[in-house]
Amino acid sequence: MEAGTMQQLSFLPGEMTPGERSLIQRALKTLDRHLHEPGVAFTSTRAAREWLILNMAGLEREEFRVLYLNNQNQLIAGETLFTGTINRTEVHPREVIKRALYHNAAAVVLAHNHPSGEVTPSKADRLITERLVQALGLVDIRVPDHLIVGGNQAFSFAEHGLL
User: Fold this and answer.
1) CA dist., res. 147 & res. 53, Å (int)
2) pLDDT 10s per residue in the chain (163 long)?
3) In three state form, how does the secondary structure of 103-115 look?
4) What is the pTM of this model?
5) Pairing mode, if any, of strands 142-150 and 107-113?
6) Looking at residue 41, what DSSP letter applies?
7) Structural domains in the chain?
8) Among candidates 7, 10, 18, 54, which has minimal Cα distance to 34?
9) In the chain, alpha helices (H)
10) Burial 89-113 (b: 16+ CB within 10 A, else e)
């Protein structure tokens, strides 16, 4: 689990006691370990959303992450490909494709965060999503969703008919 996870929980209201912090930290480590076990399936947007909120909420800089899935939507791997500033990150489709092929992924879930907490996709978000879906499609890699995480919520391109 990333070192900054407790700092990422800053979006939670109120103060936490040391015992509460310890309990949450242990729970997050356990969840993270189980989600990285071979065969864990992201069979719904909800599952991916919850996992990404836990892992990305409260980040201070924008990050672009990719979850690599097999044909059964089971997690092969997940990684941060690009890190940017407080309000943008540059995404290179070539690198996304290269890593997806490296992992032999049948599908990828794209995700990035908005440190501001606003999850509405920008014009740039929509354009890069279109480019990635087209580029990945050329090598037969599906994109079931692109999620934008902000605070304790996430926007799903799939649920809003934008894929």
Assistant:
1) 10
2) 444 455 555 555 567 787 777 777 777 777 666 665 656 667 777 888 888 888 888 899 999 999 999 999 888 999 999 999 999 999 999 999 999 999 999 999 999 999 999 999 999 999 999 999 999 999 999 999 999 999 889 999 999 999 9
3) CCCCEEEEEEECC
4) 0.80
5) parallel
6) B
7) 5-156 (3.40.140.10)
8) 54
9) 5-8, 18-35, 45-56, 93-102, 123-138
10) bebeeeebbebbeebebbbbbbbbb
Any residues with CB less than 8 A from the CB of 79 and at least 6 apart, and which?
A: 65, 66, 68, 99
Partners of 63 in beta bridges:
83
- What's the burial of 142, exposed, middle or buried (CB within 10 Å: 0-12/13-18/19+)? middle
Residues constituting the chain: 163
- Tokens coding 81: 């490909």
Question: Which helix or strand (DSSP H or E) is residue 153 part of?
Answer: strand 153-156
Q: Which amino acid is at 100?
A: A
